[in-house]
Design brief:
Elements: E1 12-20, H1 26-35, E2 41-45, H2 57-74, E3 75-82, H3 85-98, E4 104-105, H4 111-117, E5 122-127, H5 129-133, H6 135-144, E6 149-154, H7 156-164, H8 171-187, E7 192-195, H9 204-211, E8 216-218, H10 221-236, E9 258-261, H11 270-279, E10 283-286
Parallel strand pairs: 1-2, 1-3, 2-9, 3-4, 5-6, 5-7, 7-8, 9-10
The structure holds D-glutamic acid.
D-glutamic acid binds at residues 20-22, 24, 50-53, 84-86, 128, 131, 159, 197-199.
Amino acid sequence: MSDISDLRHAPQIVDYVFFDSGTGGLPYMLHLKEKSPNTLCIYVADTRNFPYGLKSGSQITSCAEAAVRLILRYFKPRAVVIGCNTISVTALEQLRASFPSLHFVGTVPAIKQAASVTKNGRIGLLATRRTVDEPYTAELANRFAPDCTLITRADPTLIRFIEHDFFTASEAAKKAAVLPAVDFFAEQGVDTIILGCTHFLHMADTIAEAAGAGVCVVDSKEGVVNQALRVGLERFEGSVRPVLPPAEPLYPAYADSTFFITGPEGINEEPYKILSKKLNIPYGGILKDE
Ligand code: DGL
């Protein structure tokens, strides 16, 4: 076998497929690999449908369903980690109904954690437009932070910057990119900022630095990864692990932690190759429908 099209005929068993609209779920996969280095992971960025955060609920559901179908043509994951708040708060229930034999782990804004660390009860939620508007997010706030004030900000500009420019941007450009959000929350007097879109985790340090020592920046990475590992322990125990050839450039599709995108056809793949190199993960190219 010499390219990913061959995989279609024999979906590969892997432990986890991480899935997001773009690069946002990568810090989650890398964190899981840190905690559990022998786990076999594949990453799929549904770049042909990026950004999800500006779509309607039904558009998000149908894009996510199509992406999962595409993933299943190539891989047999023991669990799918949705490294995307937007998909999780909007479509996770429907995905579970549409793919009843798959096990999904979702990602939701770390509102509970924020409520446990805030001192003044003013919490900022930085997320996509869809996550901010979705009633499920308000339900989470009512349930886990009933005594706090949640101040929300959708920031599609920052998300686009992270997806397309972050990995090649200068430090000055990175700082400038986070300032509108950080200034907005400072004006609102929040002492805790939730990174409620997975893309922001790439810039967690920059955001924390710009926000200053008085502001706590929280995210869901630890909780999601622990949940994925718990699911793994329950479901994978006693099962035979697949044997994959070692990572080598010729067979990127088979290598552990390979990063795939979904297009569109003609997309400039160079930034994704650069990103893969920087993160030291193999780049697998475009997963095609046929
Ligand atoms: N990374 C995604 C999230 O956590 C969304 C990015 C997008 O708008 O596609 O919500």
